[in-house]
Design brief:
Immunoglobulin-like, 4-stranded antiparallel beta sheet, about 15% helix
């Protein structure tokens, strides 16, 4: 088995996981495309919401920032270890619901969004819990028994 590369910065030393590096590059490229091409990029490819993926001993926890999005606008799919969170935020009509006001500036994200992540280990997909509070979607994804760490006793 090949050793993972090590990244050193100052006093901190950490292992580099190539999978995470590629996911970060994909997310950054999506954000750059949205920033650089504006509406053209939105029409062709979804934007990537900000998110955190963390791990406890028993679960993976994913927090995705989706301000102003209702739970009926979000689709969550989990197949094997791939998590896909997607949906769409419709653009507000210019002269419809806002009483005929003209919009001078809008920096709010609209259109299709998609967050993809590969979870580091096997999961129990039947026990996933999701909660949308204050514009943050929190998914708690239990690890499968095979993915949980085990303490090994050493006999003398």
């Amino acid at each position: 088995m090949a050793a993972l590369p090590v990244r050193r910065s100052g006093r901190n030393t950490s292992l580099v996981n190539p999978t995470h590096e590629f996911e970060d590059i994909y997310d950054r490229m999506g954000q750059l495309m949205n920033f650089a091409f504006g509406d053209m990029a939105r029409a062709e490819m979804p934007w990537v919401p900000l998110a955190d993926l963390s791990e406890t001993e028993d679960t993976y926890v994913v927090k995705v920032e989706l301000p102003g999005v209702g739970k009926d606008q979000i689709d969550v799919q989990l197949q094997d270890r791939e998590l896909v969170i997607s949906g769409e935020i419709p653009e507000q009509e210019q002269n419809g619901q806002n009483g005929g006001r003209r919009r001078h500036r809008s920096t709010r994200r609209t259109g299709r969004f998609e967050f993809r992540a590969w979870l580091p280990g096997d999961v129990n997909a039947d026990a996933v819990q999701g909660e949308l509070t204050d514009g943050v979607l929190t998914l708690t994804i239990p690890k499968s028994e095979a993915a949980k760490p085990r303490k090994i006793e050493i006999k003398s």
